[in-house]
């Protein structure tokens, strides 16, 4: 029987004690995950000490945050002692994804995307641990078997103009992400994903056309997942990735499966879930075996990033070196998947660069100063050769913003404040055209760290500029508000 109002919420108190959190920390975590202003910092004290139940959807959001941090499910019924109900708009990313790894299972998932359309107001909450791995487990352990269709295409044999238009549009969609970041055009790319899903849902196609549509669905699903990830809408990204993986599996395209798994690994690392990142990255490596050089190198570079996030420096160095060795020995006459257009030796260097800076910063926090500083310096050297100083007209603006933000953080960590401000100023100037909350969060971290050094002449001049630019241009993470699912 629920306790009377006014009595402490012992379940919430126990969860906070287990995490070592005060109610204020819980409030700050909710505001970080769901956006500033989600809850007042004083409110969780009333929840814990007086047994008050917040208005919807805060009960669901609090249960979600605690579940993510504790690594186990804390239900709304359990947390609020039967006094709150679930919020239908907030659902886990794996909602209704537990389908057979067959064409019909894929069709059922696609139907959910199509029928939801632009009126679907669900907000997908990111999952981790066993929940995340369960989404892809049948593929990882081989239980999914083989897909229904061959990955080979016979060209535009059917002459279907609509399918041809879909295929020709794919490279252009990728350029939208490269130039403007994930947040700016995610609704449009999501609409393209649903449009291809609608064609599959309608059915009546030849096997050739069906294969081409499934391939397009897989490729757009990967792109939409990446753009949602760049928008910090992690639950939606996981859902796109999971659907794209199933589509790639149905045409037995192991290279694309490996690519998507590597993206999921990179996302998990960015969310600071290193165990998930390593598990998915190693699965991507297995899926890429026997594949083309570029695909294998790209997968290995993502796995190396996951090792760095996990603090496994030796594994990072070994895997990163192998990726570099593969791409340097790449033969130009070998056909690579079209979607591997972005991979170059410099791209691998820069990915290793910000991985090293991240590893170095975490190593410094652990008190190992000499090793940490060496990692950061190595990372800076690699990133200095990258896209951070690319001119505004260059098509790689999102990459330039991301790498510039990491390089500025690296210089700040090394105490090179003038260089940190110079690079940070270039990065901040891109906010007017690039909407990438993933990159913006790095600049926001730079603000936090520079505020401790405001007496420095360079910091004192640059910090107000950066704060104003972030306030004016930074796009809130799509996952921090109730959005139309796309």
Helical content band:
55-70%
Q: Taking strands numbered 1, 2, ... along the chain, how are they ordered across the largest sheet? A: 1-2
Give the averaged pLDDT, no decimals.
90
What is the rounded Rg? 23 Å
Structural class: mainly alpha
The largest β sheet comes out as: 2 strands, parallel
Global outline: globular
- The total count of helices amounts to 21
What are the segments in which pLDDT stays under 50 over at least 5 consecutive residues? 477-486
Strand content: under 5%
Number of strands: 2
**N→C terminal distance:** 42 Å
Secondary-structure element series: HHHHHEHEHHHHHHHHHHHHHHH
Could you explain how this protein is built, in words?
With 486 residues, the protein is an all-alpha fold. It has a domain at 10-87. It has 21 helices and two strands. The chain has helices spanning 10-19, 23-34, 43-50, 58-70, 76-79, 103-116, 129-140, 161-180, 182-202, 207-230, 234-250, 254-270, 274-288, 293-309, 313-328, 345-365, 369-383, 397-414, 417-429, 437-450, 457-473; strands at residues 90-92, 123-125. Helix 6 packs across helix 9. It is globular, with a radius of gyration of 23 Å. The protein starts with 9 loop residues before the first helix and ends in a 13-residue tail after the last helix. The model is unreliable at 477-486 (pLDDT under 50).
